[in-house]
Amino acid sequence: MSKPIPATAPLADTVLEQRIARLTPRLAAAKKAIHSVIIGQEAVVADCLTTILAGGHFLIVGLPGLGKTRLVETLGIVLGLDEKRVQCTPDLMPADILGSEILTGDQDGKRHFTFVEGPIFAQLLMADEINRASPRTQSALLQAMQEYAVTVGGKTYALPRPFHVMATQNPLEQEGTYPLPEAQLDRFMLQIDIGYPSRDEERRMVTLTTGAAPPKAEKILTDADMLEAQDIIRQLPVGDSVVEAILTLVAAGRPEQSKLDLVQKHVSWAPGPRAAQSLMLACRARALLEGRYAPSVDDVLALAPAALKHRMALHYSARGAGVTLAQVIDKMIGEIR
Predict the structure, then answer these.
(1) Position 299 in a domain
(2) Which of 111, 194, 223, 272 is the most exposed place for a label (fewest CB within 10 A)?
(3) Rounded Cα–Cα distance for residues 143 and 140 (Å)
(4) Does 17 fall in a domain?
């Protein structure tokens, strides 16, 4: 979940509209610049931008070779964010991500410890194949993702703003991996599934990326623009119908509160309040990305699977009954259609 942005005095509607009017053309230009490098994957790019605009972290699940690394590099360049990458392996240690204190000496011969920052001190951190890191290393990201700070040697160091973690996972290859605990999964605003491109998209991709001058990303926005967007999003008005839709959706996934027989029988881990918070921010961000002044129930319907699939788990009985998580979420969405 994203760190709360300090509250500001309520703005007049005209001022807020002016800020939105100035920002939305630049967001459209940024989206176009990303698609000049990332061929197709419109929904994936939109969800990634939505999460960053909302100030959150996202988990991308997809097979190797689908452009996950290329995507985060492009996002970093276009959005004007300092981007760094960590390749997770079983022998990766927390200090390899956070940084460490080293003993140094000065000209007077006195020795002291100096903190050397790790790659987490970036605005957009890619944790590639995060489930290949050991639980000890995975937990090193927990404080950073929630508190936007790291503690090393008893001292706390603030991370750059904005700060976003983009983690990737291979859904098939599970040998030698460590599944992420529920507490860490819940800190990702959205889980974004990336699949194969269409035939026409793959034709364009093969042609453009194997030529003498493959497309390159260009900077469109700055980190100041992203902070302004995140501030604007928290001031967008939200109608009661949207709030009720979010609350109804989340409650429909909890066996104790749901009226759905499928949920009562097969759900073992249900979405908590952070799911509702994530949906609220993501819906606002999606509206801003599309140039609208307020989110609608359609935004809730569109974002529900990405906000819920990593925040729910089924009993073993579900497998025997042939019930999938996608089917359960679809039934939950049906409660607000």
Answers:
(1) yes
(2) 111
(3) 7
(4) no
Domains held by the chain: number: 1
Give the type of residue at 198: S
User: Is 178 part of any domain?
Assistant: no
Secondary structure letter of residue 11 according to DSSP: P
Q: Which 3 state secondary structure label does DSSP give 86?
A: strand
For residue 126, list its beta bridge partners: 85, 166
CATH number of the domain to which 335 belongs: 1.10.8.80
| One-letter amino acid for residue 5 of the chain | I
The amino acid present at 256, given as its one-letter code, is E
Q: What predicted TM-score, i.e. pTM, was given to this entire model?
A: 0.87
Domain that holds residue 337: 236-337
